[in-house]
Amino acid sequence: MIGIFFGSVGTGSANFHIILRDLSSTISFNMASLREYVPPSNSLTNKTVLITGGSAGIGKWNVKQFALLKPKRLFVLGRNPLKTQAVIDAVRAETGFEGIHFVVCDTSSFKSVKSAVKRFFKLTGDDPELHLLVCNAGTSVMGENKTADGYELLWQTNYLSHFLLTELLLPTIKKTAEKEGRAPGSVRVVNVSSIGHLRATGIDYEQTRNFPVYTPREAIAGPYSLSKFAQVVDTKRRAEELKEYGIMVYSLHPGPVDTEIWGKGGITDPEKQFSIKLISDELGSLTTLYLSTASDEVLSHSGSYYDQGQLADGNPKAEEKNLQIELKEKSLEQVKDWLE
After folding, report:
1. What SS3 class is residue 302?
2. What is each CA distance from 264 to 92, 267, 322, 326, in whole angstroms?
3. Which residues belong to the active site?
4. DSSP label at 71?
5. What is the pLDDT of residue 6?
């Protein structure tokens, strides 16, 4: 069984350092291009949008960006009601868009994900639609390493719960694509991953449950990278399976964003430790906005990985069909009790 190892991170941390350092050299070019991007004014007209992790960081900016495009409905999922509602209230006041709905969802809990989906269907009524699903919520490390469902925290929070969410919403996503005449890009799924996924060499499913003890820094280099790698692998497979519906599926790295995720991973000064220049969460949100709304060449690259708005080479292991199939089968097994 191949896998990403959570043990000694001496060499692994050095490689992760190199990845981040090389990344920093491309930031100026990529960010200049993203700053110039203006989404089509009708890109979300009459569409239903759902985003997880909309209470902070890049997700907070995406909520505002989506609201400015006046979709039919915008669902914001977050685990902290007060924090998320405050974002929604501020966006309503700033944009004048009233069609924003808050749904409680903690992606470290399958029960919470299932409840969120039920709430979504209750709010959308008898004929639900979903044109854009943005799987943005995530963490690097916090509290205990294991969830109440028995999985490694980062595996479930960053990947597995989003897999469950997507599966539960998939019939509605497909039905929406049918209504749109299977027009390419009329329905999309965007998975916010990380450049850290490049470090993974495969997936050891035993470690998604029976994980070794790790320090916060090891979490960034180990299970965090693993969870983000799974997102990229799943994106590749879903894009192929949903191609006939015209549904576009993307994964992305938003850039080295200055958010609380570094601190949660025990990294107090990433600019110094990794010789990089952090970018604002507003700039970090632009790749998600681009892949959610663009009508240019992105329509020819479903399944691809983007790095700060640019089509990029992801981890070559993610291209392996047997790994994609295995991840699907293992993930379905891990969430099977919550799929009905």
Report:
1. coil
2. 30, 7, 34, 31
3. 224, 228
4. B
5. 29
